[in-house]
Amino acid sequence: MLRFSPPRGELLETSSEFTVQAGGAESNVAVAAARLGANTTWLSKLPKSPLGKRVESSIRQHGVTPAVAWDASTETRQGVYYLEHGAEPRPTTVLYDRRDAAITTVTPSELDTTTIESASLFFTTGITPALSATTTETTHKLLEVASAADTRTAFDLNYRAKLWEPADARETYESLFELLDLLFIPERDAHHVLGMSGSASEIAATLSETYNIETVVITRGEDGALALRDDSTVTQPIFETETVDPIGTGDAFVGGFLAEELTGSPLEQSLAVGSAAAALKRTLHGDVAVISRAEVANVLSDSGYGIDR
Prior knowledge:
Number of strands: 12
CATH architecture: 3-Layer(aba) Sandwich
Family: Belongs to the carbohydrate kinase PfkB family.
InterPro entries: Carb_kinase_PfkB-like, KDG_KDGal_kin_Halo, PfkB_dom, Ribo/fructo_kinase, Ribokinase-like
Keywords: Kinase, Transferase
Strand content: 15-25%
Strand order of the largest sheet: 7-8-9-10-11-12
Radius of gyration: 19 Å
CATH class: Alpha Beta
GO molecular function: kinase activity
Pfam family, one: PfkB
């Protein structure tokens, strides 16, 4: 999507100025991973319009290869959202405007699935299947394409209450879980959306055993993250940071984790890199983590971790 934001301290209702930036869960993850050295391609469908081209060029400038299906129809459009920064006691406000967005009609035949078949890993999120019945079907099919090609599959639950009800989301998510090798899920969503109980480690073990998921990563907000693989559990605290803009923090975490995971690093290091990427993202305006491997290395070094620059 494109994000429109008035300056801090100004309202959507009265501001005459807006900054415009591209942002979206999968593209944010792709950018973070690319900035940290991964070779990334972003598959999507955009309207063939100046706004669609703005999104494509924004993704490309961060080292991601866009593989876009262009929609020339006059009936589809570019999804946008509006973000009004809050300050206590006024909360931050987010307004979505994505009805009839081109992505809601995307089908597997429109996308370059050979890219998925030749990739080391295919990633998507729970936002995409929430957009329409068509995107639900497409998400399922693309995960099947990846699985059939022995491409590792990763999925971030990323539940959005403004898109669907928990019961509908749960049914769709559970239909996808058996296709996953790696699952990211906020602890709150495991409780609220999936109806699970117990500690983070118990949730991770249940998901791994029930759906045969190789790696489960539970994010826990201020309590950091926990990951389970091969019956071994690893925890990672957050890195303290000055928060300029929290939007995209979770995407930066996933992008950092996956970038490190793709190098063959131990699970502990992937978690640490993800947490460092998340902390750095919070210091930046916008959805996208415009960060470097050297910056991540500095965060880790300052906290007693080691990583190549």
